[in-house]
Amino acid sequence: MNVPAWLWVATLVGIIGVIALDLVIVDRRPHPFGPKEAARWVVFYVVLAALFAVFIGIYFGPSYSGEFVAGYLTEYSLSVDNLFVFLVIMTSFAVPAAYQHRVLLVGILIALVLRGILIVLGAQLIERFSGIFYIFGAFLLFTAWKVWLSNDEDEPDPDGNGLVRFVARRFPTSTEYNGTKLTAVVAGQRMLTPMALVMLAIGTTDLLFALDSIPAVFGITSEAYIVFAANAFALMGLRQLFFLLKGLLGSLQHLSKGLAIILGFIGVKLVLQAVHETTSLPVPVIPVWMSLAVIVVVLAVTIIWSFASSRSTKES
């Protein structure tokens, strides 16, 4: 896949343009984000991703389009785990409802930049070291095992973010919000507001999730452009998905099991691909269509199972 420089530039400009449009339309007047408004934006971003998949199919061929769709669905589903953490962080920082969308927007912009750096590093590793898929595969299998055994009720500790603790210690911080401003003058001294800290917390905490999800997408495609695009489209739609699912997150009690299966499947796929490329052993290579089918079926079964279990619990 030979991606011309102009397409990289056009993609980056397009992403910035869409985010700027979102910022102008939604954040010109800070307000609590309701489910109906969130649903409209979720549909908008999903349709945008679908149109991009069509473009990839026309320009590069249907196989690359399938890789993008599989990567996008994987990234989007794994990103749902982020929503639990975002909810805990914003609750911990007591972010006013009217400013939560701005917090997520800036936090995810930080995350996108950091993920872009990881993707570039990952692409370089794949190009220079053919055995890297063994490491990626083993890492995903280990992560899948940890996710499967994890307690769904375990909550992350926002205070555990080392960078946020470092900034809070090194710079004077206030305890009061000043709208969406990152700094405020308190008693004649310029201080960081909680808004700055919570944005930093969300952006950098997402990086921990990227350590799992980026190798997973590289397990579907080795094309850095597709990996970046899948990450960008998933992250752009993540803010609206947060407000849409905010009241339903507790009902997705079996989601971690589904994510563990997806991670495990991609881990096996990576190991098989590594064996195929580095040895002469006759191992099967899992095609993209099979990866896409497994991801869709596992997600559908997991979501239905979660809502059915939640409903039966309420009835009993």
TrEMBL record:
NCBIfam families: R_switched_Alx
Protein name: Unannotated protein
Bilayer-crossing regions: 6-26, 38-60, 80-99, 104-126, 132-149, 197-218, 224-245, 257-276, 288-308
Subcellular location(s) per record: Membrane
Gene Ontology cellular-component annotations: membrane
Keyword Membrane: yes
UniProt membrane topology term: Multi-pass membrane protein
Keywords on record: Membrane, Transmembrane, Transmembrane helix
Primary location: membrane
